[in-house]
Amino acid sequence: QVQLVESGGGLVQPGGSLRLSCVGSGSGFSFYAMAWYRQAPGKQREKVAAITRPGSTNYADSVKGRFTISRDNAKEMMYLQMNSLTPEDTAVYYCNRQPPVLPWGQGTQVTVSS
Fold this sequence. Notes:
There is one protein chain. It contains no helices and 10 strands. The chain has strands at 3-7, 10-12, 18-25, 34-39, 46-51, 57-59, 67-72, 77-82, 91-97, 108-112. It starts with a strand and ends with a strand. The mean pLDDT is 94.
């Protein structure tokens, strides 16, 4: 059974950093491109960063230069290092395949506020 579990969110001040983690149990994680998505209140879910199986990355313009996606295929883990956070980054963050064909996990809440 596929299960995606995100963690690492929290409340942080503008300019701060967080590191999100995703574990993809039973998802064949290492064989697929993966991505981080986020959904802010009242907005559609959007992709913020993606990483291929070998490790090539791409980012939404809004996070380019501030966020870094990485993965550890052996551990079936994926990470999102988020720096220079702004209130506009406030959202629930999810991981999934790219494209997102797996059931969504619970996500992890990121709140950027002073």
